[in-house]
Request: fold
Amino acid sequence: QVQLVERGGGLVQAGGSLRLSCAASGRTFSSYRMGWFRQASGKEREFVAAITWSGGSTYHTDIMKGRFTISRDNAKNTVYLQMNSLKPEDTAVYHCAAGCKQPSYSEGSYDYWGQGSQVTVSS
Reply:
């Protein structure tokens, strides 16, 4: 089992930045690919970014590329999502997830999920 706890959400003005963190405990964190997904109110959950177990490869959706950056620190069992130039449409609950399957953008590839952290961007 892997337990995931997200932190760092909050209220920010458009154009601002936030860094989310996701702390993992339980089984070996460094064995898993880590992903970030988000779900806005009334919408389906969508893929944001993923990073391989070594941190050597990252994947970001095209619409967020250049604004959002995923990274990880295996020594701290933590994965991060740096979000810059935030827009009101980025408002959502952000979830981190851990898994070993492909493809990285699919929810079904992840076995463990955090409770989520609310990010609200005001205009």
